[in-house]
Amino acid sequence: GATLGILGSGQLGRMLAQSARRMGYRVHTLSPATDSPTGQIADRETVAAYEDLDAIERFARGVDAVTFEFENISSAAADVAARHGPVRPRGEVLHLCQNRWREKHALTDAGLPTAPYEAVESLEALPAAIARLGTPCILKTAGFGYDGKGQARINTVDDAAAAWAAIGRGPAILEGVVDFAAELSVVAARGAAGDQVDFGVIENRHVDHILDVSIADAPLTDAQITRAREIAAAVMEAFDVVGVLCVELFLDQNGGLLVNELAPRPHNSGHLTIEACPSSQFDQQLRAVCGLPLGDTQRQRPTAMANLLGDLWAQGEPDWAAALSAPSVNLHLYGKAEPRPGRKMGHLTASAPDRDEAVRRVQAARAALVRPSNP
Ligand code: ATP
Ligand code: MG
Ligand code: MG
After folding, report:
1. C-alpha distance from residue 246 to each of 5, 187, 200 (Å)
2. Mutation pick for ligand 1 pocket among 180, 261, 262 (CB with most ligand atoms within 8 Å)
3. What kind and span of H or E run contains 234?
4. Ligand 2 centre from 146 Cα, in Å?
5. Less Cβ crowding at N or C end of the chain, within 10 Å?
6. Domain residue extents for the chain
7. For residues 355 and 341, what is the distance between their CA atoms, to the nearest angstrom?
8. What residues does the ATP-grasp domain cover (predicted)?
């Protein structure tokens, strides 16, 4: 049988490995961590730094195709792996998505709409950029941000120095604040022959800049759905993606769509596809990366997903039986030993005849996890 290599070892790799194992693949993973969410599922876990190009070369030699679940793999590492077989998506896609300047410029070049933005190289350049863009705006570090880390809101030009200090490191990008009506995502997959599928449009609700709840489908007009899917298809083609990519979108107050950012891999908002669709985002990733035909992405029933952050462990082990007392609820835990606040430990999904009921069920299940505190 064939062996899939995964660079990175978090929950995204774990769920990919579960799909791969189910379809008869062997799975090798490489990351700096031991006993990782992916390593627990893989046939072989290599512990090495992503900067260790010799280790990555040895790893790539032992597998038939390489993909990644950690976004900040260097171009050098992707190039070394590509000497020994396909790396999908290709290193250039990773490189574009690792940096908000490159990503935004590539989107603009492809004719795709984003929030207004300015590249800001230094604190000295920031006041002029604020003046050009207007307030309020958001300063984001160009690389290595996730879950809203490395971002600061700017309400007046006097906030410039504090915002620059708060994001930790430059260079940065300054974006106009979008007064969005909703946040959306489209998870799409593209095969080596250019064949494409997507999972429709998902609605995303954030709390403290971390994804909290996702719902399939988003409540949009047919024209908005078509437009969102067209944008995703255009990104897949413009970036020549082979694999899975998620486009995060804002729906503005006029019903227009703007691209927020891209993730060149399965996305937290697509976790609900495991229960909602015959072939999940991880199944599609496996199929695309390994050169198999893509699968059926049709959503079967309205489904909602709620993230489980480490905060839920504050009073001890959550009450899993209580959450699962509704039969439409499914539980996913990622095998992480330390439940830190803000850390994604797992998620719940619930299906229902309509989307509001799916949201209600998944919220109720999550609320039931927290045991009543002693009087
Ligand atoms: P992740 O990769 O975990 O999705 P991130 O740290 O890369 O997050 P973004 O997606 O850029 O960050 O921003 C996080 C959230 O902050 C967005 O989902 C949105 O709620 C809000 N946000 C970001 N940019 C803007 C903007 N220009 N206008 C309004 N809200 C924004
Ligand atoms: Mg991001
Ligand atoms: Mg985001």
Report:
1. 21, 4, 11
2. 261
3. helix 222-238
4. 5
5. C
6. 3-87, 116-176, 182-369
7. 29
8. 104-290
With the C-alpha atoms ordered 357, 361, 366, 367, is the resulting torsion angle positive or negative?
A: positive
pTM score: 0.97
DSSP lists the bridge partners of residue 175 as 117, 138
279 phi-psi bin (left φ>0, alpha ψ -120 to 50, beta other): beta
Exposure class string for 327-336: b at 16+ Cβ within 10 A, else e:
ebbbebebeb
How far is the centre of ligand 3, averaged over its atoms, from the C-alpha of 2 (Å)?
33
Write out residues with Cβ below 6 Å of ligand 1: 115, 138, 140, 145-149, 175, 177-178, 183, 206, 209, 248, 260-261
Question: Residue 245's closest CA among 266, 227, 225?
Answer: 266
> With contact defined as beta carbons under 8 Å apart, do 201 and 220 qualify?
yes
Q: Which CATH architecture has domain 116-176?
A: 2-Layer Sandwich (3.30)
Closest CA relative to residue 330, chosen from 273, 275, 270: 275
Q: Which of the pair, 315 or 16, is modelled with greater confidence?
A: 16
Which residue is closest in CA terms to ligand 1's atom 23? 260
Is 291 annotated to bind a ligand? Reply is no
Nearest residue CA, atom 14 of ligand 1? 148
Which pLDDT tens digit goes with each residue over 106-150?
Answer: 999 999 999 999 999 999 999 999 999 999 999 999 998 888 899
Nearest atom within ligand 1 for CA of residue 175? 27
CATH architecture of 3-87: 3-Layer(aba) Sandwich (3.40)
Task: Judge whether 146 is annotated as a binding position.
Answer: yes
DSSP β-ladder status, 26-31 and 44-47: parallel
From ligand 1's centre to the CA of 262, what distance in Å?
11
- What are the tens digits of pLDDT across the range 211-270? 999 999 999 999 999 999 999 999 999 999 999 999 999 999 999 999 999 999 999 999
Q: Is 149 annotated as a binding residue?
A: yes
> What's the first-to-final CA gap in the chain, in angstroms?
57
- Write down the CATH number for the domain with range 182-369: 3.30.470.20
